[in-house]
Write a structure and sequence with these properties.
alpha+beta; 22 strands; 24% strand
């Protein structure tokens, strides 16, 4: 079996030279499943509550869209969520001596499924396409801060506008997915209906809102992977319905965040693979309109009652008391939210309205349609926030594509949100004034200075201290409020093996197998 070597992230490494490298693949890290050794054949049916918004490599690096793109294209690098370590993928190595100039080396001999070469020119073509404003790529902000040059068919040199020791995360997400330039040119706007990559699976069909079918790529570089012949992604909005489908054998892997389903799965003899992520299930607050006033934003944030939300919508689940889970490197027992004070919030809202013509404050809350739990969350938020006179809370429940569009456009005052992973670099992306995923408009000099340190420093203690400074300020200023710790759980029957939590709600399908 191939061997995979793990390389620590920079925040946990004291090496001056940053290297992510490998030999020819590797074994999956241990999971809760006890399915024996990997075997070839069969299919895995996976289910989550939201459909992907895109399979175009320029636009899919948001939410659940990461899942099919990782399967179709592979990723230049992977982040092992359980260990917070970067691993090689389609790129054999990524190195930098100074955090500013990086060298990306591709694996030799890779081809796209249309027979064309997966080479440095293909990487250049895809990254140039990300920069094209016509493609509305969420990766454009990252790409615009980089310059790249093809050195030889397997080498790309990347120069960052500033020192950034955290750049690797971009090669796992927004710059990770490389499609066939030939297919992109030939198919144009139709490419998203029939994408061509070099990843472990090929695109077969997509009934939007229902299911996507991906079949094994027999020419994938890391043979004998992928082990299964087919992956089917089913969209089932309600957790109960997904769990019933899992018990009935209609689904092989389901993602859930609630611990009660993990308990039920264990009681039924199933396996549970889980990982603690950064942040949790909650909302981000924009810095626009009335919420641009820091006192108003903080007041609205404090109106959200975590204990009440858990008791009403998620009974029996753990309430988030701190930003990072105990036992993780960013855990800080002093990082807590301000206490709920309805009277003070009412005074703040009254004062703001008196200064601004007396009109009510209208807040647009954007959430994902089709999930009964998220609908309950919306109603509870509305009740909690409208407990103060002078606020009108509008709920906008959108499908996956519309939600992604609204998120990227910043067309919201509050939005259902997690941070999307385990790596601290997510904080820079989402909350730094110049963060590539900062679609809330949040800007805070204390947060910026701390997060700048995480890029410029290669000292793990200094980096972690800076992250904690930023986290405390974020919580105190009401930028992000969550009530449920971010724990992703993969539930499966005991004959499914090789499961690892990937991104936020996905797994590595190339590592998974099923004993039939």
């Amino acid at each position: 079996m191939p061997i995979r070597r793990f390389v620590k992230t920079l925040a946990a490494s004291t090496m001056c030279l940053i290297v992510v490298t490998s030999c020819s693949g590797g074994a999956a890290s241990p999971t809760a499943a006890d399915a024996g050794d990997p075997v070839r054949g069969g299919e895995i049916v996976y289910s989550y509550n939201t459909d992907a918004q895109s399979v175009d490599p320029a636009t899919c690096a948001v939410g659940i869209g990461l899942a099919p793109c990782q399967a179709i294209y592979g990723a230049l690098l992977y982040l092992d969520v359980a260990n917070n370590e970067f691993e090689p993928g389609m790129a054999e190595s990524v190195t930098s001596a100074d955090g500013k100039v990086w060298t990306l080396k591709l694996r030799p001999g890779m081809t796209f499924t249309d027979g064309t070469p997966f080479d440095a020119a293909a990487v250049e073509y895809n990254w140039n396409r990300i920069l094209d404003p016509a493609n509305l790529s969420p990766g454009a902000a990252t790409a615009s801060r980089l310059k790249w040059a093809v050195i030889d068919p397997l080498t790309v040199e990347i120069t960052s506008a500033e020192v950034n020791y955290r750049l690797e995360l971009a090669f796992t997400e927004e710059l990770a997915f490389i499609a066939s330039p030939t297919a992109l040119q030939q198919m144009g706007r139709d490419f998203g209906n029939s994408p061509v990559g070099a990843g472990p699976f090929t695109f077969t069909s997509w009934a939007r809102g229902t299911e996507m079918v991906l079949d094994r790529n027999p020419n994938y570089w890391d043979q004998p992977r992928p082990y299964v012949d087919r992956v089917v992604m089913k969209t089932i909005g309600a957790d109960d319905q997904r769990f019933n489908a899992l018990q009935a054998g209609e689904v092989d892997v389901m993602t859930v965040t609630l611990g009660k389903y993990a308990d039920r799965a264990r009681d039924a003899g199933m396996s549970v693979t889980q990982a603690d992520l950064l942040g949790g299930g909650g909302v981000r607050l924009a810095q626009r309109g009335a919420l641009a006033d820091p006192d108003v934003r903080r007041a609205v944030s404090t109106l959200i009652d975590n204990d009440q939300m858990i008791a009403a919508v998620f009974p029996g689940e753990k309430t988030a008391a701190t930003f990072a889970a105990e036992g993780t490197e960013l855990y800080d027992p002093e990082a807590t939210w301000p206490k709920r004070d309805v009277a003070q919030a009412q005074k703040t809202i009254d004062d703001y309205r008196a200064r601004n013509g007396g009109e009510p404050i209208r807040l647009r809350y954007v959430t994902v349609a089709g999930s009964p739990l998220l609908a309950q969350v919306s109603e509870m938020l509305q009740a909690q926030i409208e407990e103060v006179d002078g606020i009108e809370f509008e709920i906008a429940a959108l499908d996956g594509a519309a939600f992604a569009s609204a998120l990227n456009a910043g067309d919201w005052d509050l939005i259902v949100s997690g941070l999307g992973g385990a790596n601290g670099e997510r904080l820079y992306r989402v909350f730094h004034t110049n963060g590539t995923a900062n679609n809330s408009g949040y800007s805070n000099p204390v947060v910026d200075a701390a997060l700048d340190t995480t890029h410029s420093s290669n000292d793990p203690d200094e980096v972690n201290a800076a992250y904690k400074t930023a986290i405390r300020e974020l919580m105190n200023t009401g930028a992000y409020k969550f009530w449920q710790p971010a724990t992703t759980r993969l539930l499966s029957p005991s004959n499914v093996g090789g499961l690892e939590v990937a991104y936020q709600y996905w797994f590595r399908p190339d590592l998974a197998w099923v004993n039939q």
